[in-house]
Each structure stands twice: as C-alpha cells, then as structure tokens.
Write a structure and sequence with these properties.
The chain is α+β, with helices and mostly antiparallel strands. The protein is about 30% helix and about 35% strand. Helix 1 (about 20-25) crosses helix 3.
Length: about 180
C-alpha cells in the first residue's frame, strides 16, 4: 500500500530505511512517548524494521522534500474491542519534525483509507496521560474522548502509565 499527502508519502518500510529509522528510534524522547525504550543499536532497529517489513500494519512516513523516513503510522488490532470493523491507529515521529502538522496529515490520510477503502466502522487511538503532543494530534483529527484507564499499561522501564482513550466512528468522520 502507498498513500500520499501534500507533504508526505506513506509506504511500506524497506531495508534502505534502516539508518533513518534508527536515527529517530534511538532518540531519548521519541520511544518513551509510545511506551518503548529508545533503541540502543542499529542491530536492534534492524530487528524491528524487519518485523515491520514483513507485516502490513505499519507504514513508513517519508518527507517528500528530503525523501527521508521521519516516522511511522499504522492500523492495529484494537485488543480492547476485539470487534470486526474496528482498528486502532498508532504513530511515532522523529523529534525534529514535531509541531509541524505532519503527523496530523499522515494520520488523516490513513483514516481516510481505513474508512473509505477498508470500510472500518470505528478507529480508536490512545496516548499516555503525559503525552500532550499526541493528545493535540488526536483532538485536531476529531476523535471523541472515551476517558482514561488508570494504571493501564506497564512500559519498558516497568513504570505503569494511565491511557487516555478516544474513538471516531465512520459516521462521525463523514460529518467532519
């Protein structure tokens, strides 16, 4: 699958993406916002990159100007719902690209594809309570708050985080 926006190309990861992938995955502020530890080596990044290359859930976010991978976005099984027609969106972006509206642009296109092509009925999304940047992306996209699950998920450093949950139905998306 390949999707395109004004500033981005969303496509499957390929092996030549490794250096750019490692560059953002090793940053100390990127992974922890998504609940995973910063990558400690390029070999560690290669292991995760290969898993993403095998699957169909996660797309590389490529900046059209530099032609460089700057993040990822994907639609995953929503393990809280286990309902047909429902998926959960997840995303991560290199720190130097934060605050430019790029993630909102990428997720919006993935949502369009999910509702129009995959015919999903609902998309969910979550963020850790302390992740204000992700919260802002979610709000800009029109997701509706479902509430906070307290003490919900253990992350890489064994701390346990609250999850703030949102969803958007196809009907709500069509009205946006």
């Amino acid at each position: 699958m390949r999707l395109e926006t004004e500033r981005l190309i969303l496509r499957k990861f390929v092996r030549p993406d490794l250096d750019a992938f490692y560059a953002y995955c090793q940053h100390p502020e990127v992974g922890p916002n998504a609940g995973w530890k910063p990558h400690e080596s390029i070999e560690e990044s290669l292991k995760y990159l290969e898993m993403m290359m095998e699957g169909n859930e996660v797309l590389a976010i490529v900046d059209k100007i530099s032609n460089k991978v700057i993040g990822s976005v994907g639609m995953h099984e929503d393990t809280m719902r286990n309902t047909k027609g429902v998926k959960m969106v997840g995303y991560v972006l290199a720190k130097e690209f934060w605050g430019k509206g790029l993630m909102t642009e990428a997720v919006k296109e993935v949502m369009r594809h999910a509702f129009e092509v995959e015919h999903l009925e609902l998309i969910s999304v979550q963020h850790f309570a302390n992740n204000a940047k992700s919260k802002r992306v979610i709000e800009k996209l029109g997701f509706k708050s479902e509430g906070t699950i307290r003490y919900a998920r253990k992350i890489f450093d064994d701390s346990i985080e609250d999850l703030v949950c949102y969803s958007l139905t196809r009907r709500e998306w069509e009205q946006l």
